[in-house]
């Protein structure tokens, strides 16, 4: 006996045996499951195979045509049953139930159905969905297209083939290369067969091929029409399925306490978990619910911000209509000011999502607007008067209406000069100036303006409220106006702005070899130099025949604005049409003339007046 001890196996850990048994039991369970599944499948196949053929055919005839193709691929026994010649009526009935046209004369029923529905390439089996070459009656992927099709030289064997034969060959036309390619094997077979026949037999053979090809092409048109209709039905079905899922998720979201307005948003409806065709079951909802709940708060903030912007735009349109109906001399500030006033700001910000953006949400706030506008006019007038007193210390409120009370905005002037001029304002137009600002550039603009997020548009530049704009007298514009007054003998220092508008002194100068004229308002804004400027002489005439000493070059658009004052009661400001009606109805003036109203535009002078070329009057003209 050897002195060496025999090796003994180490005892396994206490839980090792249990783990091993668990793994064995798991594998056994999987095997049993597979056996059960395979057993069930084999039992079902056996049951179908034992079923009487006439009953089996009757069941199969109620299936979709492509379902028959799929069943024929499950096992050899079913393939033999379904592809048997005696099953022709099954295919015919299924095709008729689906509304399919008759198959091509050169194809069997199964091959025809496979061509229409099977998404796989007929050559390699890869997916080639949508790539049916109807002139060849094959479905082919891009890779096989270059392998299985060839140009004419490959199949012609150097022979001159008649066009009638070429038209019958399986082919496709490539629009990029503008060439026709032929299915190699079948085309070569047809060509070889044609060349092997005698002239008389070849002619008969070819006429039969041509006739068959024409019948096939007619059937191709029917197939395309049917497929197009099916695609339309499928799109409609998918659309309805998406709507059903969206509606189902919408109900779930509302049950979670969220506003239904959220579910109307495009971002919600396009969410990858929402915009699907798969039905929403309890299991599906349980799976997607956490991500939907995580997504909803951020969506709520976005939708609410978008709604606030919509309310701000609605307010803009409301104020435009409201202002058109007013007749007092106060000017109405833009929505950039009023939107930040209470109670308008609270309407925009405080209403929940369900509050919407209908104009009626501002009805109560509009009842207070007249008082608010009047107060704003008083404060802004004092601000402008302060700017005038820096230039003219003893100026009074009445001096604001003089033609020499011309203002600009130091914030906007550098940008205006880049654009080809300076915006010059008289009073009360200067009250309405909204300074350009950037969303994040208020500090560089030398004024402190912090606005809520909904205030900003999507672009880079924005209007700040007029109350934060700094206004100052434009000394150069004042001096130019004084020179114009000297040329025409007008004491501009005592002439009201409305009178200067009516006089509208015109100036002429040479520009690129032509004589042009400009209105005084345009002169102080754009052509700010004085070289070569003269008063307009009477020997010049405009083609448009608007050379009238008192003419105000005002567009129809301006005539529709509240740019006109009634001279009989200067407290009445409205559009030209309304002022004329007011003069007739209130003051009983039968023939209304220009002397009955004042033109007082609420805009920069350069937007009212323009520059025109002059044509010299010909001798004797």
UniProtKB/TrEMBL annotation:
- What organism is this sequence from? Marasmius oreades (fairy-ring Marasmius)
List compositional bias (Basic residues) regions by residue number: 24-37
> Looking at the Swiss-Prot or TrEMBL record, what is one Pfam family this protein matches?
F-box
- Residue numbers spanned by region Disordered: 1-43
At the top level, the lineage of the source is Eukaryota
Query: What SMART domains does its record include?
Result: FBOX
Name the UniProt record assigns to this protein:
F-box domain-containing protein
The F-box domain covers 45-94
Q: Which InterPro entries match?
A: F-box-like_dom_sf, F-box_dom
Q: Which Gene3D superfamilies match?
A: 1.20.1280.50
């Amino acid at each position: 006996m050897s002195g060496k001890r025999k090796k003994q196996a180490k005892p396994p850990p206490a839980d090792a045996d249990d783990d091993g048994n668990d793994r064995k039991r798991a594998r056994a369970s999987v095997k049993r499951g597979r056996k059960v599944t395979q057993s069930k499948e084999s039992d079902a196949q056996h049951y179908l195979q034992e079923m009487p053929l006439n009953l089996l055919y009757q069941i199969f005839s109620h299936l979709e045509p492509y379902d028959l193709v799929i069943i024929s691929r499950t096992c050899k026994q079913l393939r033999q049953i379904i592809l048997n010649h005696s099953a022709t009526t099954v295919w015919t009935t299924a095709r008729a139930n689906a509304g399919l046209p008759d198959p091509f004369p050169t194809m069997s029923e199964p091959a025809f159905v496979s061509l229409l529905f099977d998404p796989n390439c007929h050559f390699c089996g890869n997916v080639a969905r949508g790539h049916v070459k109807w002139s060849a009656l094959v479905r082919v992927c891009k890779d096989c297209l270059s392998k299985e099709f060839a140009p004419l030289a490959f199949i012609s064997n150097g022979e001159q083939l008649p066009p009638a034969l070429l038209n019958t060959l399986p082919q496709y036309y490539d629009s990029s290369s503008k060439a026709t390619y032929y299915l190699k094997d079948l085309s070569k077979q047809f060509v070889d067969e044609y060349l092997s026949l005698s002239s008389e037999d070849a002619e008969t053979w070819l006429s039969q091929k041509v006739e068959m090809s024409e019948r096939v092409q007619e059937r191709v048109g029917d197939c395309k029409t049917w497929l197009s209709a099916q695609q339309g039905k499928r799109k409609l079905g998918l659309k309805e399925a998406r709507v059903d899922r969206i509606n189902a998720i919408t109900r779930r979201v509302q049950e979670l306490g969220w506003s239904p307005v959220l579910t109307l948003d495009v971002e919600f409806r396009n969410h990858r978990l929402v915009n699907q065709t798969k039905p929403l079951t309890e299991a599906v909802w349980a799976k997607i619910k956490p991500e939907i709940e995580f997504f909803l708060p951020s969506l709520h903030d976005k939708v609410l911000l978008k709604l606030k912007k919509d309310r701000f735009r609605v307010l803009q349109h409301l104020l435009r209509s409201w202002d058109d109906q007013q007749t007092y001399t106060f000017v109405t500030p833009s929505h950039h000011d009023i939107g930040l006033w209470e109670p308008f700001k609270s309407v925009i910000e405080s209403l929940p999502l369900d509050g919407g953006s209908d104009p009626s949400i501002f009805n109560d706030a509009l009842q207070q607007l007249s008082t608010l506008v009047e107060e704003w006019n008083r404060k802004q007038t004092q601000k402008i008067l302060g700017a005038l007193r820096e230039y003219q210390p003893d100026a009074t409120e009445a001096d604001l209406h003089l033609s020499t009370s011309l203002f600009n905005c130091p914030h906007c002037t550098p940008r205006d000069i880049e654009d080809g001029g300076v915006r010059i304002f008289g009073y009360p137009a200067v009250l309405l100036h909204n300074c350009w600002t950037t969303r994040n550039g208020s500090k560089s603009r030398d004024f402190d303006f912090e606005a809520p997020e909904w205030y900003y548009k999507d672009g880079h530049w924005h209007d700040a409220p007029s109350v934060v704009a700094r206004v100052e007298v434009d000394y150069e514009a004042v001096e130019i106006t004084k020179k114009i007054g000297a040329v025409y003998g007008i004491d501009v220092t005592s002439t009201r702005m409305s009178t200067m508008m009516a006089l509208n002194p015109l100036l002429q100068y040479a520009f690129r070899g032509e004589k042009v004229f400009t209105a005084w308002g345009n002169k102080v804004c754009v052509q700010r130099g004085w070289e070569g400027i003269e008063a307009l002489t009477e020997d010049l005439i405009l083609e448009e025949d608007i050379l009238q000493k008192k003419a105000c070059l005002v567009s129809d658009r301006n005539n529709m604005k509240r740019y006109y004052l009634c001279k009989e009661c200067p407290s009445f400001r409205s559009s030209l049409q309304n002022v004329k009606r007011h003069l007739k109805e209130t003051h009983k003036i039968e023939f209304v003339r220009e002397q009955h109203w004042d033109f007082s535009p609420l805009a920069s002078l350069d937007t009212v007046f323009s520059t025109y070329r002059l044509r010299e009057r010909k001798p004797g003209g």
